[in-house]
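Throughout this chapter, every protein is written as a compact record of paired, labelled lines. The reader may check this reading against the record printed directly beneath this paragraph:
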Amino acid sequence: MRKRSHRARAVLAMTAAAVLGVAGCDVVGGSSGPSGTKAKPSPSRTSLWDSSPASVAAVGDSITRGFDACAVLTDCPEVSWATGSSAKVDSLAVRLLGKSKAATHSWNYAVTGARMADLPGQMARAVARKPQLVAVMAGANDACRATTSAMTSVADFRAQFEESMSALRGSLPKAQVYVASVPNLKRLWSQGRTNALGKQVWKLGICPSMLGDADALDASATQRRDTVEKRVQDYNKVLREVCAKDRRCRFDGDAVHDYRFGTDQLSHWDWFHPSVNGQARLAEIAYRAVTAKGA
């Protein structure tokens, strides 16, 4: 009887040890491998991000086309912050891929004057290239309308951006997306209004909701500009929220909106769009966001 009892206790001890070994992750807070080292944690949201993609496509509006950076009322894609080849800008694509590879593995599908409603179509064209990273900057033209009442509603803006992301995800579920915030249009007005030539160009129809009657400082003009800026802030909130739902999307955290563009960063043709210097600053912001660790 004593021998059998001793044997039974031994069996129970071995069984308990086996059970504790299996349940180790619950008992001590971390499972161990054969060598006693902790097993790797489950992949986090940021572990899916590749800070060195092999190809880049850009979508958006006139800013991404380098509009008015080289000549008046003219696109200048070679100085685009996203895909330009100019050494003065050192675009996102050049920084990520190198100059020679950027020439063959980056594409610019942005269109001057485009609004968020145009982004799904641009995304569809970008998808055909199968880029590993898509750079997005859109929304300024949704606020830059003839009147504040003509601005794209926040609800429509959200639906259109979600449609754009769906157009991408339907074909490229693993492509990464960098989303730039909409610039602070009110600051661009405050900087550019000091230049007489710029204000003459503004009269040709550049962002009338913000730039119209540029020298007016009465209550009505102030309220109009504040209304535009509030809409820009709402757009950026949409970009942040929609991007946050996608595990392979990074929003810039309002970095472009918060950047304090000065006259050196504004086109000396229209004093509103980014100059070559301004394009370089946008490229810096994008590169930091794309290559940030654990962002």
User: Anything to note?
Assistant: Residues 219-244 form the longest helix (26 residues). Residues 20 and 28 are 10 Å apart (CA to CA). The first strand starts at residue 56 and ends at 60.
